[in-house]
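Onboarding guide, step 5: your first structure request.
Type a short instruction followed by the sequence, for example:

Predict the 3D structure of this protein.
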Amino acid sequence: MKDETRSFLTKSFSDNYSNIHTHRTNFTVLFPKYQERYIRESWDMISRIISSYGLYSKLDLHSGLMEVANNKNTIDPFVIIKARDFLKLISRSVPVQQAAKIFDDDICCDIINISRNFSNRQTFLKRRTRLIGNKGTTIKAIEIITRCYILVQGNTVSCMGKYLGLKTVRKIVEDCMDNIHPVLHIKTLIVKKELLKDKRFKNENWAKFLPPLKSEKKNFLATQKIKNNIKSPDNIFLTEKNYYYNYEQRVPHSNKNIIKEMNQQLIDSYNILNF
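The system replies with structure tokens like these:
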């Protein structure tokens, strides 16, 4: 019995690859029209990368689809998920050489939608340019701190890196679209990195060292609340319960003459009809 278990454990993974997959798994990825030329020119490289992992790939230019599927030569069951993410990144304008790094075990990807809840297109464009920064400086700083690859394209942000870095990038991007400047997050990450080096602050609260993350939207709502609390003349009359009794005092003299003239015109027209 011991000899059988020892022989089973010493078997390599490639000895039993014929019985791994019970059925065929395939994924299709839709790519935009402006990416058609780049994908068509680099499809030979894409298909060679996918086939090196024992997968089948197909390009349909008529429908704008890329397909990947496993076959009898596929050894790793999870590589089909990596290949799907590989095609997603290419469809979002990530270069093939950069997207091929997704096949590494410690690399993940995340595609963040940033066009949600924006009724005003100008507001969306301003916050997206704020995320990119002047000549891409802000996005480059985020890449250096989080050690992730970031590409802003259209209504999405494509990220590649380790899981904790992707989690931080998603937080920064979503807060930026919610009107919190990404520079505040960059300062926070730099301060945390410096505090980790000092053992004196290991068991202390770091809240007093970190910059506050406040949205400009909250300040705007606070000012609006203050403005609404200022009592107008009509509100004063309502609170004093003299709204109807003091109507003649509130109506300007010029408006009184206009009302009298209108009433006189109505009376004259009524008399003419009766006549």
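Each response can be followed by summary notes, for example: Residues 12 and 75 are 12 Å apart (CA to CA).
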